[in-house]
Amino acid sequence: MSNHEPGSPGWPQSGGYPPPGMGNASVPGSNPAHNPRWLGHVREGNFRPAPGNAAGPPSPLVPATPAPIQVRGAIWPLLALGGVLALASLVIVVPFLLSNTGVAGFAVGFVASLAPLAAVLFAVKVIDRWEPEPKRLLWFSFSWGAAVSIAGTLLIQPLFAAFAPRSSEEAFLAFMATVEAPIVEEVTKSLGLLLLLFAARKYFDGPVDGIVFAFTIAGGFAFTENILYFGRGIAESENSGGDFVRIFILRGIMSPFAHAIFTGTTGLIMGLAARGWHPARSVVAFFVGLIPAMILHNRWNSMGEDFLTQYILVQVPVFLLAAAGIVGLLLAERRLTRQRLLEYAGAGWFTPMEVDMLATGAGRRWATEWARRRGRGAQMREFIRTATDLACTRQRILGGRDVAAHQNDEARQLAVLAQLRAAVVA
Fold it and tell me: Which range marks the domain in which residue 413 is found?
């Protein structure tokens, strides 16, 4: 890799801006009709040209360490509510776990549950890499799944148990596994998504965001549930070692993503609805999204003696389909980033070469490595992150919701980008 300098052919150029007033018309693909057809669709009446950069290329006159962008939106009330609910839920959840597993079983179950949790959180990290969500909201999501949704499930279960068939123990357990669990668990998990959608909607504005939050909530839920199953396998079995291995293979190796896929369908549908924000539409999306989540959950819990056959013929294809769908969403998200940044390029904020750099993983890695060699790696990473945030802000503006607030975010992000550009090339 050559060590290019600013202005050389290999460096994303900072000059060459079109004159003010040239607007977006000069950029291929910036017409609303050429927008991505589904993920970033913009109604013609909502389209607004990107603000022009009348000053042209900024001079590198600011300090090398610019001020970071301020947190967008007041999410502290949501975090405070989540913390209180999580602590209150632990009063219910921890005694329940200990009473079913004992101290030794709880300890073994806790440690063993970290393995499938790590797999889910690694998937979240990969999915969330392009436009990372605030860690505060991911902690809220995990706490909701691991504590609040578990406590809610424990409180609601007795209501379903009262109506469960009592003709036999087998009929009772089948009802609780195939009816109660899919309904109650998916509702309690997805209520966290609904809270996020209303209280942190600047961050929950697309299907990828919905999947990230849903996977994190589901990962937390499965973590606590696994402590119960693993710990109970130790505490209640005469062959504790053998039963523990069997349960770990089933839950820790064969199905670490089961809950994530169930709840992920709800997050996906809610995220699609969030593209065109409307409170009533979001509530409808919550209920619609619960349907496939409950069906998938029911089918998983309904697998019986022919478990292995159904697992291979049904569950494995479902997992592969989910993985392919997520890859498709991530590619669409990158295309949308390119589209929105091209519109800013037409207004004089980027060159097409810079857009190519910012809209591809390879381009980002190359630019970061180039800047790192010059001692500007942190500034380049912040430049890339802010440009991605800017593209998302523009999508919100073109979506027609909270336009004035998002235009304020846009102006702040453009100012910070100018500082970061100067810091990188200084």
Answer: 334-425
Query: Is 390 within the bounds of a domain?
Result: yes
Identity of residue 270:
M
Site of tokens 């990107």: 50
Residue after which a domain boundary falls, among 302, 324, 348: 302
Closest to 348 (Cα-Cα) out of 49, 43, 133:
49
Residues 164 and 209 in one domain: yes
| Count of the separate structural domains present in the chain | 2
Confidence (pLDDT) at 250: 92
CA distance 293 to 382: 37
Quick one: pLDDT at residue 51? 75
Q: What is the pLDDT of residues 239-270, one digit of tens each?
A: 777 888 999 999 999 999 999 999 999 999 99
Please give the pLDDT value at position 31: 53
Given its phi and psi angles, is residue 73 left (phi above 0), alpha (psi -120 to 50 degrees) or beta?
Answer: left
Which residue has tokens 């073109």? 398
Question: Is the residue at 404 inside a domain?
Answer: yes
Which comes out higher in pLDDT, residue 28 or 367?
Answer: 367
Considering the domain architecture, whether residues 151 and 111 belong to the same structural domain is answered as yes
Note the residue count of the chain.
Answer: 426
What gap in Å lies between CA 13 and CA 57, rounded to an integer?
10
* Closest by CA position to 364, among listed 15, 12, 5, 1: 12
> 3-state DSSP call for residue 257?
coil
